[in-house]
Amino acid sequence: MMRKITLIVATLSLLFIKVSADEGMWLPYHIGRVITNMQVYGCKLTAEQIYSADKPSIKDAIVHFGGFCTGEVVSNRGLVFTNHHCGYDAISGLSTKEKNYLDNGFWANSFEEEIPAPGLSVSFMVYMNDVTDRVLNASDRAAEIKKIKEEATAGNHFRADVKSYFYGNEYYLLVYETFTDIRLVGTPPQNIGKFGGDTDNWMWPRHTGDFSVFRIYASSDNKPAAYSETNVPYKPKHFLPINLKGIQENDFAMIMGFPGRTTRYLTQSGIKSIAFERYPERSKILKAKLAEWWSEMEKDVNIRLLLSSDYASYANSQKYYEGVMNALKSSPCLNEKAKLEEGFLKWAQEDANRNSQYSNVIKELQQLYEDNLELNKVIQYLAFAYSGVHIAELGESLALMHEALSMKTPDQNILSQATLSLNDEFGPYFLTFVKEADQKVFASMLRIASQNLDKKYWVSCMTSKQLAKMKPVVGKDAFDLYASFTYQNSILTDSTKLRKFMQKPTLAVLQKDPGVQYALDVNNMFGQYLGAIRAVNQKEEALMKNYVKGLREYKSDKFFYPDANSTLRVTYGQIKSYIPRDGVLYNWYTTQKGILEKEIPGDSEFDVPTDFSQSLRKGNFGKYADKNGDLPVGFICNLDITGGNSGSPVINGNGELIGIAFDGVWEGMVGDLYWEPSKNRTIAVDIRYVMYVIEQMSGTQRLYNEVKIIL
Ligand code: ARG
What are the structural domains of the chain? Predict the structure, then answer.
């Protein structure tokens, strides 16, 4: 009875300010705005248990993993779960042909065996504060922001950030504690961790064991410290227990994590500019690049290990662009935006003040996108095609060097600055340089630019005599031949030659080297267009600031959540099936049966490790089994996430871990631009599958005994 009354009261209070169950990436700081609704859906936690600035709360178990993903602490010794695709770069970086952790997996049997992952860091958000008034009322905003950050970090080891929300209508201070001694504890082989590969990526039903395990190390006083043998496992303020009891459709679920970027408040014209202008070009360019890479990666394990992390990330983006364009066709997004804009305009025109402030903003945005169609296109080719080759990477330093050497008396200051930065770049540059692959991409990028871009936007080699001289032969066009000429005759493709040049740089070498000329060209082009695109972006930002301000007044009965901006958010909802298209219902969970159905021995995406496949067939899943005796693998829920949320914990109403989020679904790919309740789903790997794989693959109970299990 009591519960019923609370429910009625809660529902009544929701009549005044509307919040839906699924949409929204809420600021932990404003969790109070949604906690009542969360409780209606089955959350047993209080607002303070989820986010508190000074008492241990769930947010103390959440980390920004590497700055690009999310992870969760699952033991009192700093054990972190994240996705396999989040650990991918570290795992492939630590792998060699002989110790191939990417292909074969890895499990540490002791703290000593855990492998430092250089360059990897994790950050906890210690607290956040609303600093909107201070920033907006300041005469010098940049100076005020600097002051706010200095105050927050005085006398401590924290890092502070002040970020804009709602396009500069609000500002929040975020204070972080960052740990840099992060070690790999375990990973399944990639034919579990990336099972289904790019074919299954962005899609449901899914059977990917997308998780990996790391540990945070700290100094003996539990503070962040650079790697040292004397560091000890970090003792967190809070960690998530692991619930093996299982889940049901409609169960409450929430996610806390670091979503990267959404643009949900864009106008129709803004969405069209992204999905009809930018994404088709990007998708085309990346597709061409990936094809060239793959043909090289297939030839040699070492090349595959070198390129696989970048390959995966480009493939992920390419399929993303394709998915957004495709899903937009059947999405109500553009119609709904049109309706909203019509209503907004009418509302603005009803009142003299509103009329002067808001009635032109939608039109002005549309004009801005139309005026910059061509610029937008060039930028896509500049950023993705021309810069999509390795040899363009040193452009900035080479330009500096070129500038110094071109002077009558070379400027020694600039020259040594250029040499210094080339020295810094040299190692990383050659570490991931695969000559054959890059040469093929180079030819392909020039070709694709020549087919799609107006001549006036071609890099100079494309109209050069040298290229015109190339006589195509069977299977090789002029671009292939020019690429081969360039890669044979450049200091940028040979570490010995580049080293030699750096010891005694001369203008003559820079001027006759075709690779250097290309890098300089691309760098110049950036100089030429970057200012223009920055100005456009600034103008868009200013117009959007006004538009979003207006929208919030127009719909003043609604709480708005800000677009994702790589800061900590909470989203909540339920475990839910969906209807991808007419006549088809997608169940909310998958099991081991699907892994065995998809299994293709020897295939690069659908192979299953032999022993593992056998144990799945045997089917004795013990405490990990669902009520039918099957092994749960994945599930979906209607929570609101995006890239950056990868690796986030899916948490039940008691604050326990039930899954690790890793993807979205194909039919809901418009999600970053527009929320559609019936199609938007988050895909998670069931925590029971995670624990089963750990037990099977590591062959020990080491991690099982370390975490806190709820049975
Ligand atoms: N779509 C996932 C995301 O953007 C990444 C999945 C990685 N897997 C892959 N097959 N590339 O978070």
Answer: 58-121+180-263+563-710 (2.40.10.120), 133-179 (no CATH), 268-531 (no CATH)
